[in-house]
Design brief:
alpha+beta, four-stranded antiparallel beta sheet, elongated, coiled coil, actin filament binding, WD40_PAC1
């Protein structure tokens, strides 16, 4: 029986829609560096790509509206002396981007106004950094902006440290020391904690401003890299990695618990690393395999990942990026958009869409999204302030107006729903209280019982006669299922003779209960014992007569039931003898079946 029920979800039918080649980003030279990185990052305006270039490291910035085959020579963001390993966009300024390089430096860049890849002149001018952050002694493998505080950047290096930079002042105010190389890092939604995985197979949760880990757990046991992603405003962390048998796994962690919730879940035995991406608006986790073309997505519910579907493609991806929620197309019911690299030469957008035909804004699948206003400044964050950035109402974007800001609130869509669900509760409280009923209800008189049984017998007789008349006059094209008849009163209230012990001589204190008998048999003298005995004799005679009537009626009903059973057997035999038959025969048989059902009711 359990397999017949389907879990209700707004995102159960989400599907990934590929893009035709002419609407992709072609003629690229994506970096072939072996460092474990996503290669691309996206925001609502631009797409950054680690570039394969000579004479130092570089990356490209592609405006999202410039699709198709790009020019052979495009302006690059140059300045590093070694390969660029990672980039990250500023969450509150779409023109600011940070880059990490094999040269051990972190650079901050600003995309020029009206930036385009199509230049009029013969000579292409590259972009230079606006700020250089130096302090790491080995290569910098990851950079990640704080999602709540303005201008706070984390950089992870091969020197086994994570530095926290204020890019406004260029100072590294905090340092997190690791025992091994950091493989991935992810901020909590309020920017107070940082989750990291490292080569020593440990998952750590850092209180960044205390510069110490508050939790440390044994993670995935496999030798290959593992990844971690903080699940937005949920107090949960999702990790991907490998088992000792090199099976890809996924884990769900709650800070403070030493084991993943429900243990590790095995996915498959493919060798590529799983790159996790979390969408806080739909509570969905996307897993993109490096080296294969599949993108799985799960919905988080009741501390479990419920598998939704999988986008399959024959083109494997080495890198992938997901767009922030404020940049999706709300007119096409798009809930997420990914950009995957293919063959190191082009990038394909993949739109994850809820299939609906509605012509209006779908508020149930578009909760408010993080906007462009930080929750605090860098100084306030360093001083200990914590908060979540203000959100914007996506309906204002749907209508084409300026984004409407909504105060920051954890799970803003859940609280009104709970309040609405709880609101009608007080109105329903008085409903279950039943109306007062009398403690005693007088039983039906024998005359009423006799009349009800007689009416039931007449109904059966009328049904037989009317069914014969209908069979002669009805048309085959106008046959319809008869409306269900209410059960007769005699069926709902079984008639059983009252025991003689209940028939007692009337007394002055029980005149009300003796009233029905007086109404039926007339007033009897109250002081005469002979009159009382005559009354009892009459009652006994009536009960005997009633029992005889009930017995006769039961025999008649039994005989009718036998006739109905025989008629049903005849119909079945007729169906077998006739076979499929013509349309008229089938309709006649159907009519007989309907009459049988009516008779049985």
């Amino acid at each position: 029986m359990a397999g017949r029920f389907v879990r209700a979800s707004k995102y159960r039918h989400v599907f990934g829609k590929s893009t035709r080649k002419e609407f992709c980003y072609d003629n690229l030279h994506i970096s072939r560096n072996a460092w474990d990185t996503n290669l691309v990052k996206a925001n609502p305006e631009y797409l950054s790509v680690n570039w394969e270039s000579s004479g130092g490291g570089a990356f490209a910035v592609i405006p999202l509206n410039e699709k198709g085959k790009l020019p052979d020579q495009i302006p690059l963001f140059r300045g590093h002396t070694a390969a660029v390993l990672d980039t990250d966009w500023h969450p509150f300024n779409d023109r600011i981007i940070a880059s990490a390089s094999d040269d051990g430096k972190v650079f901050i860049w600003e995309v020029p106004q009206n930036f385009t890849l199509y230049t009029d002149g013969d000579e292409v001018v590259d972009v230079t950094p606006v700020s250089k952050l130096t302090g790491h002694s080995r290569k910098v493998g990851q950079v990640l902006f704080n999602p709540a505080a303005e201008n706070i950047l984390a950089s992870a290096s091969g020197d086994l440290t994570i530095k926290l930079w204020d890019i406004g002042t260029g100072q590294a105010n905090l340092v997190l020391k690791h025992p091994d190389i950091v493989q991935s890092l992810s901020w909590s939604a309020n920017g107070a904690f940082l989750a990291t995985t490292s080569r020593d197979k440990k998952l750590r949760v850092w209180d960044v401003r205390q510069q110490s880990p508050v939790h440390e757990y044994a993670g995935h046991e496999g030798a290959k890299n593992s990844r971690a992603v903080w699940m937005g405003e949920h107090n949960r962390i999702a990790t991907t990695g490998f088992s000792r048998m090199s099976e890809r796994q996924i884990g769900l962690w709650e800070p403070g618990r030493k084991e993943p919730i429900g243990g590790f879940t095995s996915l498959d035995s493919i060798s590529g690393i799983c790159m996790p991406f979390w969408d806080d608006g739909s509570s969905c986790l996307y897993l993109a395999g490096k080296g294969d073309g599949n993108i799985r997505y799960f919905e988080y519910e009741n501390d479990k990942f419920e598998f939704l579907s999988e986008h399959k493609s024959a083109d494997p991806q080495r890198g992938i990026a997901f767009l922030p929620r404020r940049g999706i197309n709300v007119h096409e019911n798009e809930i997420m958009r990914a950009f995957k690299t293919i063959n190191d030469t082009w990038i394909e957008p993949i739109s994850f869409t809820v299939p609906r035909r509605a012509e209006t804004f779908q508020s149930d699948i578009y909760p408010p999204a993080i906007g462009l206003k930080p929750a605090m400044s860098a100084k306030e964050w360093l001083d200990g302030k914590t908060g979540v950035p203000a959100k914007i109402d996506l309906e204002s974007i749907y209508e084409g107006s300026a984004p409407v800001e909504i105060p920051a609130d954890y799970k803003p869509a859940v609280a009104p729903a709970r309040a609405a669900a709880a609101a009608p509760a007080p109105k329903k409280e008085p409903e279950p209280a039943p109306a007062p009923t009398p403690a005693y209800r007088a039983p039906p008189t024998t005359a009423d019982q006799k009349a009800s049984i007689s009416n039931m017998a007449n109904k059966y007789q009328d049904d037989e006669e009317s069914s014969d008349d209908e069979a002669e006059t009805s048309s085959f094209e106008e046959i319809s299922r008869p409306a269900p008849r209410p059960a007769p009163a005699a069926v709902r209230t079984p008639v059983t003779p009252a025991p003689p012990a209940q028939a007692k001589p009337p007394s002055p204190t029980k005149t009300a209960s003796a009233a029905p008998f007086r109404a039926t048999f007339g007033d009897a003298p109250k002081s005469s014992s002979s009159s009382d005995s005559d009354l009892l004799d009459k009652i006994k005679e009536l009960f005997d007569h009633q029992n005889k009537i009930i017995g006769a009626q039961s025999d008649k009903i039994t005989a009718q039931s036998q006739i109905i059973s025989q008629l049903a057997a005849d119909v079945e035999a007729l169906k077998k003898r006739v076979g499929p038959g013509s349309q008229e025969q089938s309709e006649r048989i159907r009519q007989l079946e309907l009459e049988l059902e009516e008779a049985r009711s």
